[in-house]
Amino acid sequence: MLTHVIAISSNTNNNNKKILFLKPVFRLNLAMTSQTTLSRLFKPLSLAKTTLNNRIIIAPMCQYSATDGNASAWHQTHLGSLAISGAGLLFLEATAVNPDGRITPYCLGLYSDENERALSQVISAVRSFSTMPLGIQLAHAGRKASSNAPWAGGTLIPVDQGGWQTMAPSVLAHNDNELPPKEMTLTDIQTVIDDFVRSALRAVRMGFDVIELHMAHGYLLHQFLSPLANHRQDNYGGSTDNRLRMPLEVFNAVKDTVGDTVTLGVRLSATDWVRGGWDIEQSKNLCRELEARGCDFIDVSSGGVSPQQSIKSTPGYQVHLASEIKQTVNIPVMAVGLITEPAQAEQILADGHADAIALARAMLFDPRWPWRAANELGETINAPQQYWRCLPYQHSSIFADTKTEMR
Ligand SMILES: Cc1cc2nc3c(=O)[nH]c(=O)nc-3n(C[C@H](O)[C@H](O)[C@H](O)COP(=O)(O)O)c2cc1C
After folding, report:
1. What is the DSSP letter of 181?
2. Distance from residue 268's CA to the centre of ligand 1 (Å)
3. I need a labelling partner for 112 at 20 to 30 A (CA). Which of 22, 256, 285, 349 fits?
4. Could you tell which of 57, 61, 340 is best to mutate to test the pocket of ligand 1, judged by most ligand atoms within 8 Å of the CB?
5. Domain that residue 209 falls in
6. Do the domain assignments include residue 140?
7. Burial of 393: CB neighbours in 10 Å, binned 0-12, 13-18, 19+
C-alpha cells in the first residue's frame, strides 16, 4: 500500500524570492494500510450484536482440565494467552450442560453454581486485560460421553471404573465393541433441552458475548440429526424433519429464553463422510430452519459421528462445505479445518467461501498467529501494552497506536 507524505523544500527564484515546493514522496507504509484498504481477514465483522475487530476466530478446544466441570488454573493460563492474540473472537471449549453430557470426567461444565463461580473467576481475570469478545460452546456428548481424555486413549470409561451410563437417541454404540447408550425417553429429551436453557442463562449472566450450540462432531445433537446414530421410530427419528426436531427444539428454547441479549449461533458437521449418513443437503435444510428461527451464524465443521468416516484432511478440507452453506443462508458463515496460513485465510474470504475463519491447532501452536497474519497482510493489530516493545525492527509497525519510551 502506497501512502504519500508531503516533503517541503525551498528554492530561490530570479528575483531572489524564496519559493516553497511541496512534493509528494511515496513510500510503503504498512501501519496505514488497515485504515485505508483493509484485507478481508482484518475487516470487522458484525455478528448480530457482537462486533469482531477482524475475522480470525479461535475455535472451541476442549482442554480436559476441569474438576467436576469447574474451570482451573489451566483455563486461566490457556484462555489468558489466547485473549491477547488479537483475534476477533475467542470461543471457549465444549462446555457441558449437565454432568452426563461431559465428554470426559475432566470436561468443563456450566450446570452448577460452583461451575459458574469457577468460570466467572477465569472470565473476569481475562476481561481485566482483554476486550476480545468471548464465546462459549454449549454441548452434550450423548453416546460419546464418559470417555477417557485423548492422552489416556479416549476410550469409553465403563461405569465400574468411574464412567457413567451414556444416553443417546438410539441404543447404538459409537464403536461396535462398546457398551451401547440408553435410548432417551421423551422426558430425557425435555430435561436436556431445559439443561441447555439453564446453561445459556448462566452464560448470559456471566457476560459471554456469543453462545454456540454444538450440533457437530458426533455429539448428542448431531446424533439426533444423523441417520447413522438415530434409529428412533417416534417423532424424533426417521424423516429428516423428525431428525431435525430435537436440535431445533434446543435452539428454539434457548433463543426464546435469551432473545437478543446474546449472539446465538450453531456449529454443525455438514457431512458425516459416510454414504447414507447426514450430508450437505440435509445440512442446508437445517441451516435454513436455523436462519428462520433467528440464528446469528453457522460454524461449518464435519464428521465425528461414525468410525466409518472417510476424510481426507488436506488444507482447507471443509471450506467447500462452508461455501455451500454460505450460498444457502444470509447469515455469517465460518470456515474451519486446516486453515493455517494468513494468505490461505485471506483467499477463502476473497473467494466468498466464508465470512470468517476459525482456527484451532494453528492457534495452539502459535498463539500469536493473528500478529503474524497482520504482518503478512500489511495490517495493524491490537496487542497488550506490556508487549509493545517486542516487535522486531522489520515488523515495527504492526501494533496500532503504540508508543514506548524509557529514560
Ligand atoms: C485440542 C482440540 C480440542 C478441540 N475441542 C473442540 C471442542 O471443544 N469443540 C469443537 O467443536 N471442536 C473442537 N475441536 C475441533 C476444532 O475446533 C477444529 O474444528 C478442528 O481442530 C479443525 O480445525 P484446525 O485444523 O484449525 O485445528 C478441537 C480440536 C482440538 C485440536
Report:
1. P
2. 12
3. 256
4. 61
5. 38-367
6. yes
7. exposed
